[in-house]
Write a structure and sequence with these properties.
By secondary structure, the protein is an alpha+beta fold. It folds into two domains: about 230 residues, Aminohydrolase, N-terminal nucleophile (Ntn) domain (Glutamine Phosphoribosylpyrophosphate, subunit 1, domain 1); about 220 residues, Rossmann fold (3-Layer(aba) Sandwich). About 30% of the residues lie in helices and about 25% in strands. A seven-stranded antiparallel β-sheet has the order 3-2-4-1-10-9-11. It has a six-stranded antiparallel β-sheet with strand order 5-6-7-8-12-13. The longest helix has 15 residues. The structure holds iron/sulfur cluster (SF4). The site of iron/sulfur cluster (SF4) has 12 residues, from helix 8 and helix 16.
């Protein structure tokens, strides 16, 4: 995970399993492998003969399930789990998922969501005007409300109708009394995979690392616009829309997903390695003595840079993994204090060296400046920062918690301006083409199957409730200036 506390955070990890004795135990293990996707809260719903029961709480998974009786109290052969990081909604327990619904059909179901809806405000208003009340402030509750109030007699029809009303980035898993159902938005922004265990159980989860954790074999990715229905009759696939265009979030490869995960056939670790290799070609550093990584998410890119440039790699920075977390939105000084607590320097590796410092991204720039100063205070001759992704200058509306460009240093300064701000001797970024090349073309569509909107403002969908605000900000900050139309 990045050093900058709460700088770029993603909303949530999902794990569901069907046909497994006491399924909640394996769900716990699967969620453990997805903890990097959200540390704010966790929950599991178990399905025992059609009866849904839940335990959830705030904090890390181990904290929420810190007594054996919590998992013991969730028997049943199917379960659905969620780890949360909030991008929309407050930090209260009411926002912790899975959420549970019943509605006019008196048909209970649980729902877990990863992503962000771009028309949540409009839908929430419509539903509220219709007399609906919301328990939570996150947009995840909206799909549940739409389903539970849809008049169609069949649950899948209600779900399809509802999915066709929401917009944005979403991966959902639902648990009903007789099925586990997954759905992915028409662009497939967030990863969602299907796996099988030798004992016959079926798993659907956010990343393949969770399949590995529970000894399941990868079967395939869920497709954009697809609904996957798993029950005692087997697995069935349906579409809620054919109007799809794959554009997987490139940030999943750059930094969100675990390096041992594979998204749409591309290893996250190898993609990061290639980002570093291409970065070394695009942004060489003559006369450097050593390549170093900002731990931990930049290791592969730094090793890639070292391999391609021939400059040796060394560990100059060490991360303390055991820093206590805070769930309160940190102020800038708390953030800096957090970085100080997390990072230390191996002085003999740094002293007297011209350093290439590889990082995965620069968000606000305050952490980069702190690290540059730290390395110089430990005797570095020069610090040349190389970023294994393009300049981050646009907000994300599909599930990452940066909704305004104002927070991004790249929206305010040129590359040289950023260099001055972070006080490095030089600064170079990977190009958007380099990034796409490193990940590979996932599709022949206009996006090559990838969303790179964070970097080039090329949003694969309309922004609905956010469009007006974004257009104004883009104009004010001149975000598209000098860019290809
Ligand atoms: S805008 Fe950025 S973070 Fe958001 S989905 Fe696209 S690439 Fe991912």
């Amino acid at each position: 995970m990045p050093i900058e506390a709460k700088s770029l955070n993603e909303e949530c990890g999902l794990f569901g399993i069907w046909n497994q004795k006491h399924a909640a135990y394996l769900t716990y293990d699967g969620l453990h492998a997805l903890q990097h996707r959200g540390q704010e809260g966790a929950g599991i719903v178990a399905n025992q003969n059609g009866h849904l029961k839940r335990h959830k709480g705030l904090g890390l998974l181990t904290h929420v399930f810190n007594k054996p009786e919590y998992l013991e109290s969730l028997p049943g052969k199917a379960a659905l789990g969620h780890v949360r990081y909030s991008t929309a909604g407050s930090h209260g327990i009411e926002n912790i998922q899975p959420m549970m619904f019943t509605g006019i059909h008196a048909y209970p179901f649980a729902l877990a969501h990863n992503g962000n809806l771009t028309n949540a405000k409009t839908l929430r208003k419509q539903l509220t005007d219709d007399g609906q009340t919301f328990k939570a402030s996150s947009d995840s509750e909206i799909l549940g409300k739409l389903i539970e109030n849809n008049p169609k007699p069949n649950f899948i029809d209600r779900l399809k109708d509802s999915l066709n009303q929401i917009r944005g980035g979403f991966a959902f898993i639902l648990m009903t009394p007789d099925s586990m159902i997954a759905a992915l938005d028409p662009n497939g922004f967030r990863p969602l995979v299907i796996g099988k265990r030798d004992d016959g159980s079926t798993i659907i989860c956010s990343e393949t690392c969770a399949l590995d954790q529970v000894h399941a074999k990868y079967v395939r990715d869920v497709e954009p616009g697809e609904i996957v229905i798993v029950n005692d009759d087997g697995i069935k696939s349906e579409k809620f829309t054919d109007n799809t265009e794959l554009s997987v979030c490139s940030m999943e490869y750059i930094y969100f997903s675990r390096p041992d995960s594979v998204i749409r056939g591309v290893s996250v670790s190898r993609a990061r390695h290639r980002m570093g290799q291409i970065l070394a070609k695009e942004q060489p550093t003559p006369n450097a003595d050593v390549v170093m990584a900002v731990p931990n998410s930049s290791f592969e890119a730094a090793i890639g840079y070292s391999t391609a440039s021939g400059i040796p790699f060394d560990m100059g920075l060490v991360k303390n993994q055991y820093v206590a977390r805070t769930f309160i939105e940190p102020t800038q000084s708390e953030r800096e204090h957090g970085v100080r607590m997390k990072l230390s320097v191996v002085r003999p590796a740094v002293e007297g060296k011209n350093i290439v410092l590889v990082d995965d991204s620069i968000v606000r720039g305050t952490t980069s400046k702190y690290i540059v100063r730290l390395l110089k205070a430990n005797g570095a001759k020069s610090v040349n920062v190389r970023i294994a992704s393009p300049v981050l200058k646009f907000p994300c509306f599909y599930g990452i918690d940066i909704r305004t460009a104002d927070e991004l240093i790249g929206a305010h300064y040129s590359v040289d301006g950023i260099r001055k701000q972070i006080e490095s001797d030089s600064l170079g970024y990977l190009s958007v083409n380099g990034l796409t090349k490193a990940i590979g073309h996932l599709s022949n569509n206009q996006y090559n199957g990838l969303c790179t909107a964070y970097f080039d403002g090329n949003y694969p969908t309309k922004l609905y409730d956010y469009q007006k605000e974004f257009d104004e900000e883009a104009k004010d900050l001149g975000l598209y200036k000098g860019m290809k139309a």
